[in-house]
Design goal:
The protein has five helices and four strands. By secondary structure, the chain is mainly α.
């Protein structure tokens, strides 16, 4: 997958208008961010964010920062592929948190 495609998918799966929160999960560990490893990735990320800011699809400003990638910590094993390991629990969480509803509110129906 290209970095540009990754950015496109990323934006459509987050709420870029809130800080330190994603849906019902709250705290600095839930803040969104785009991380780059090169000047080219930084350029692509900044351009992607600027295009959204210009098109103004949301009433609120975008708060997702673009930052140099730093040290990375892999999530605990029980978090890896959680949606596959616990599909019922994941779908309950996803629905209960309002994730799908908020994404539809932000982006419209998939493919719009």
């Amino acid at each position: 997958m290209s970095y540009e495609k990754l950015l496109e998918v990323f934006w459509r799966n987050i709420d870029p208008t809130v800080k330190d929160r994603q849906f019902c999960d709250v705290g600095s560990q839930y803040r969104t961010g785009i991380f780059h490893h090169s000047a080219e990735q930084e350029r692509l990320a900044a351009a992607s964010k600027a295009a959204l800011e210009k098109s103004k699809p949301f009433k609120q400003p975008l708060v997702t920062p673009v930052e140099q990638a730093g040290e990375f910590w892999r999530a605990e094993e029980y978090h890896q592929d959680f949606y596959k390991k616990n599909p019922v629990r994941y779908n309950y969480y996803k629905t209960g948190c309002g994730r799908d509803a908020r994404l539809k509110e932000l982006w419209g129906k998939a493919g719009d």
